Amino acid sequence: MTQQTLALAKQIKLLILDVDGILSDGKLYYDNHGNEMKSFCTQDGQGIRSLQKYSDVRVAIITGRKSEIVARRAKELGVDLVIQGREDKWQALQEVFDQLNLKPEEIAHMGDDWPDLSIMTRVGLALTVPNAHASVAEYAHWVSHRNGGDGAVREACDLLLQAQGHYRAAIGQHLPPEQA
């Protein structure tokens, strides 16, 4: 990662995540009864929990689709700011912006397709995945190595932890004292 990316990441107080293509692989799965299914990466979950526990960065979800599965996963991860069913993601963010008490440069957004550009182009740190739409990647400050739904969010959380000096404390909790 570049020094510029680290400098931008150091200021972040809110990480906003898209769902389809970021927290999940972007594929829609339906069974014969019309039930929707999504898969989530456990490493992403560990990254989100660690980011919230060891730093002052809050995590939010803003997604164009509406799904009970997303609400359940957010609750499991302790993500309390969840806005679903909103194609205009910037407008959705504006509705809660005053209560967040943040400046745009203190916000990071991780998205992979056109609806995410409305936020990505207005915040301090724009993040994406290698399988994002090519035009979205053009606006990103940083691209993960892993695809959405396969550990990309964990990479973003690790980036923020490292930039803000919390990475060693986070990993140290899982190491023997002599190695922490």
Descriptive account of the structure:
This protein has 180 residues and is of the alpha/beta class. It has one domain (3-171): Rossmann fold. It has helices spanning 3-10, 42-54, 68-77, 89-100, 114-120, 134-137, 152-163, 167-172; strands at 14-17, 29-30, 36-37, 58-62, 81-83, 107-110, 125-128, 142-143. The strands form two sheets. Strands 5-4-1-6-7-8 form a six-stranded parallel sheet, with helices on both faces. Strands 2-3 form a two-stranded antiparallel ribbon. Helix 1 crosses helix 7 and helix 2 (42-54) packs parallel to helix 7. The model has no long low-confidence stretch (mean pLDDT 95).
Radius of gyration: 16 Å
CATH superfamily (homologous) name = HAD superfamily/HAD-like
**Helix-residue proportion:** 40-55%
Number of strands: 8
Mean pLDDT: 95
Strand order of the largest sheet: 5-4-1-6-7-8
List keywords for this structure.
alpha/beta; 14% strand; Rossmann fold; 8 helices; globular
